[in-house]
Amino acid sequence: MLALLSGAARAEDASPSATPSTCPESCEARFAPIFFWAPINTTSAAEGEGTPPTDVTDGATGLNGALGLRFEMETGRTIVSIEELYLSISRDSTSPSGIPTSLSFKMSLFEAYGGYRVVDSLSVIGGIRFFVGRLEYTASTLSIDQDSSLLDPVVGLWYRPRLSRGWRAELGADVGGFDVGFDISSSASAVFSWRGKRIGWDVGYRALYMKKSGSTEFLETTFYGPVFGFEVYF
After folding, report:
1. Residues 155-184: pLDDT tens digits?
2. Is the pTM higher than 0.85?
3. CB neighbour list of residue 229: distance below 8 Å, 6 or more residues apart
4. Contacts by 62-66 with C-beta closer than 8 Å and gap 24+?
C-alpha cells in the first residue's frame, strides 16, 4: 500500500498540473473519512460498590466496525477540526473454565477542536471530547450493564511538518477529562499524509485511552491500531 502511495506521490510531483487547491493557501478545508484496520481494544469494567474491575474483552474481541469522519478548516494560523468516531464490538465465547461469556460494546466519540499555529508546523489546540457508550457483559453470575455519556475538556499539540511537496507528517497528542467527564482521556496519533490536487491519502497509527472510576461504576478502555483513509480538499 505504501509503495502505491509513494508511486502516486512521485507521479503527482512530476506533473505540471499538481498545483495547490483553488482555495487560497491561507484558507483550506478538507473532509477525511478514516478507517481502522485490525484495531485492538482492551476494556475493563465494573458495576456495584466495591466490585473489582473485570477484563470484559479477555484479550480477544469481535470487531463489527470502526469508522471515523473528520472535517477540518485552516485559515492563516487558525485551525478548526470536527471529528466523529464510531466503534462496535460484540462477542460470544466460552472461557477456558467453560463459562459462556457475552460482550456488546458500542461507542461514539465526538471531538471538536480549535487551534492556533504558534510556530512553523506546531499548533496548540483545545476543545471537547464527547463520549457516548453502551456496554453489556455477562459471564455466569456476573452481569455489567453501563450506559454512559461523558463530556471532557481537552488540550493538546499538533505537529505537522511538510516532508516534500506532496507528503506531510501529522503528529498529535492530547489529554482531557480532568475529572469533569472521565478521570482522564487521551489520544495520540502518527500519520503520513500525501496530497494531490484535490484528493489525498492517509496512513498511520492512532491510540485512544479513557478511564472513569466511581463508587458504583468503573470503565477503562484502550483502543489502538493502524489507520488509513482518504481526503478531499476544497
Report:
1. 999 999 999 999 999 999 999 999 999 999
2. no
3. 32, 33, 34, 35, 68, 201, 202
4. 62/89, 62/90, 62/91, 63/39, 63/87, 63/88, 63/89, 64/88, 64/89, 64/90, 66/35, 66/36, 66/39, 66/223, 66/225
